[in-house]
Structure formats: C-alpha cells, structure tokens
Amino acid sequence: MVELIEGELFDAGLWSTYAVSLSKCSILRLSFTPRPINPSSSGVMTMAHLDPAVLRTVVENVLEPSLQRPLGELNAVHAVTLEGDQVAVSIDLGYPAEGVAQALATAIHHAVSRIDGVSKLSVDVDWVIPASPAANAQQAIPGVKNIIAVASGKGGVGKSTTSVNLALALAAEGAEVGILDADIYGPSQHHMLGVGERRPQIVGEGKAQMMVPIEAHGIQSISMGYLVTEQTPMVWRGPMVSGALQQLLMQTRWNDLDYLIIDMPPGTGDIQITLAQRVPVTGAVIVTTPQDIALLDAKKGIEMFRKVSVPVLGVVENMAMHICSQCGHAEHIFGAGGGERIATEYQTALLGSLPLDLSIRELTDSGTPSVAADPDSPIAKAYREIARKLAAQLWLLNLSASPVPEIVVSED
Ligand SMILES: Nc1ncnc2c1ncn2[C@@H]1O[C@H](COP(=O)(O)OP(=O)(O)O)[C@@H](O)[C@H]1O
Ligand SMILES: [Mg+2]
Fold it and tell me: What pairs with residue 80 in β-bridges?
C-alpha cells in the first residue's frame, strides 16, 4: 500500500511542499519542492556552487535517530546524487525503522536545505537487515538472520509479555519476525498470540521432518505449548520436553526471519546456560521489575550471558510504575530507577520502561497483545521504541563484528 501525502513542511523554510510515500516494503520517500523564488530577490541559487562531496558530507553528518551517531559513521549513506539542481539522497539503515524514517528524512531535508542552490530534494530511507556473522555457523538455525534471547532471572516479571510485544513491534517496524517459546514449564506464547488449539504442520520425512511455525498477528511462532498440553504431567515434562526443546530449535522451518525472539525459560540455571550455548544467540535482552530482589536476579542474568560470550543488548524495566486507570496518576510502587542502576553498573543500556498497566495484561491474556491491538497506542509506541533501539544495537554489533577469517590453503 502506498500513501501519498502532500502539504506544508516548514513555514519559514525555502521549501513549500513535500510528498511522502510510505509503503509496506520498508521504504520511505520524501520529495521536497522549493517555494517559487523571485529571481531578482536572491542570488543564492547558483548551481555552479553545488559540490557533490559537500552534499554527501552534510548528509553523512546527520544523526541516525536510534543510535544518535552520524549516518556516515554507520555506513548508512547509500547514495547522494546530483542532477542539475536536483539532489537525491538514499539511506540504508540496518534495522527496521518505520517509526523514525520520516523524522530522519526530515532531518536530512533540514540539513540539505541550508545549502544554496538545491531546487529539488528527494530522500529515500530504506533498511536492509544484516545477518549476524554467526548465522552461517554450524549450529545456526536455518532461515534466521539474528537470534535475540529475552531472559529474566526470575519468573513472573513479564518476560513473555515483553517478548511477544517486542516481536510484534519489530514486525510493525518493518522486519520479518518469529518467536520461539522455550519456557519448558510455563509456555504461554500460544495463549498470548491467541493461537488456540492449532498445531504446527509437519513437513518432510523421517529425520528430515520439520515443523512449520504458526502465523499469528503477522509473526511466525513455535511454542512448547504446541507440543505439550496442560494435562501433560509435570514429571514427564522434564525429560520429554528437553528433547522437544531441541526439536523446536533445530526442526522448525522458519521462513526468512530477520529476527527470531527466544522467550527463554526463567532463571539462570543449567537449562538456560545450555540453551544460550546451543544456538548462536546474537544478543540478549534482560527483563526485570524494579524490586531489589528482581534486580538481583537480573544481574545474574547479565552475568550468565557474559559468561557464555553473548552480548547483552540492554535491560527492559517492566511494571516500572503504576498508572491509575481512574485518574492517570503515576506511582513507582516498586521503587524507581532500578533498571537504570543495573544498566549503568553493568555498562549496558536501559532500553526502556513499561508501566504496570491493566490494558497490557488484559490484551495479552486475550490473545491480542498491545502492539497487535493498536500499533499506534502510547504503550505500543513504547515497545516499538525499545524494539528499534535493540535492533539498532544489533546492527552496530554486526557492523563491528569482524568477518569470519578466510581459510587459505597453500601448497607448502
Ligand atoms: N507491564 C505490565 N502491566 C500489567 N500486567 C503485566 C505487565 N507485564 C506483564 N503483565 C502480566 O503479568 C503476568 C506475568 O507476565 P508474564 O509475561 O507471563 O511473565 P513471565 O513470562 O516473566 O513469567 C501476566 O498475567 C501478564 O499479563
Ligand atoms: Mg513466561
């Protein structure tokens, strides 16, 4: 779907009209046309002064909104072309950026409009999500570019709620996303995604059998909940389920995912460590609530991932404050600033905070999580901002990752 909007952009600027085309294929294009000028009133529109190198430098110095780093530093300026007095800028980001693409295009316009002599400017903002170098490793999960583990030191802090909303938020921002519910004793994604009694289709023969993930709200999903029922006795779950978990990891036929979110089992014991080692996790996100006890467990979570060399992308503080549904008053009932403190202590980022909000629970429990129910609501926007931040961090990580060394075989 392509939407075309035209209107006034900057009242005081040189430019009078703009057109925005937004499409689902992750591209945003802005075209700017100048206000007609009186040739005798200005001597600035001299094309001879337009230098492509200067134009490129100006664009490269614009800050990328999620990482707050210059576009040039991120290798994000795909092209700056000049034809006569018409400039075309094309930007390639490495994360899905639907929510900030327009702001970025506007910032570029702002910067370029200060240069004399440009009569027309078009800005394309697109994204190409790179695969983690580990995506080609032996243990890699086929069809998956990046694996994000969402973990918490303890249960009940909202790890599954955060996982599913972040998965949906990454999709809303323009990525192909899947979620794997690896919580052995308390799978919940089948409920949260409203999948009901559907079971994954099995394709292939014998050892090559694969499960086809179930699509819900635009993301692919596989859950322990699809394999065990509430009637499966607890004593059977351990042995049976650890085999099943291996199957979920290795025998799911994901279809071209930019990101696979793994809703990890709660805790920091052997199961979690083995899981973090068994698949090449690109980065981990730690969910915590602000109570001291939860924060202590969150620290253990960070330490666990560090021990197995998985980069921690940041901390999400859930139930950070309570917003009264009657009067809107915000109260830090579990204490304030805990997430910020551990993020600082462990040199990682506080990716964002979510309030304790009745609608989050109600929507998630009814099978349509907040981001799927209304992607533009303030809560969904908070999840989307966190999703962009963590995906941008992954991009940075993949940018700085050294390429896998080439093995050269010589004769002697
Ligand atoms: N920010 C929130 N506001 C209100 N309720 C929440 C929030 N986050 C989670 N919940 C609710 O808390 C309960 C536990 O969340 P869940 O995601 O299942 O935790 P975990 O996976 O860590 O055990 C669920 O009923 C969920 O709907
Ligand atoms: Mg859970």
Answer: 89
Q: What pLDDT digit, counting tens, does each position of 100-127 carry?
A: 999 999 999 999 988 888 889 999 999 9
Pocket test of ligand 1: the residue of 159, 223, 364 to mutate, having most ligand atoms within 8 Å of its CB, is: 364
Residue in 285, 304, 261 with CA at minimum distance from that of residue 389: 285
Q: Residue 101: which H helix or E strand, with range?
A: helix 98-112
Nearest 5°: the CA angle 134, 301, 272 is 65
Of 286, 348, 324, 330, residue with least CA distance to 157: 286
pLDDT computed for residue 272 by the predictor: 83
Q: List the shell of residues around ion ligand 2, using CB closer than 5 Å.
A: 160, 183, 188
Question: Which of 77, 95, 94, 23 has its CA nearest to residue 388?
Answer: 95
Q: Which ligand is nearest to the CA of 364?
A: 1
- Residue 40 DSSP symbol: T
Structure pTM? 0.87
In the reported structure, the alpha carbon of residue 245 is separated from the centroid of ligand 1 by a whole-number distance in angstroms of 23
Q: How far apart are CA 191 and CA 147, in angstroms?
A: 22
Domains of the chain from N-terminus onward: 3-127 (3.30.300.130), 133-400 (3.40.50.300)
Instruction: Among 159, 361, 371, say which to mutate for ligand 1: greatest number of ligand atoms within 8 Å of CB.
Output: 361
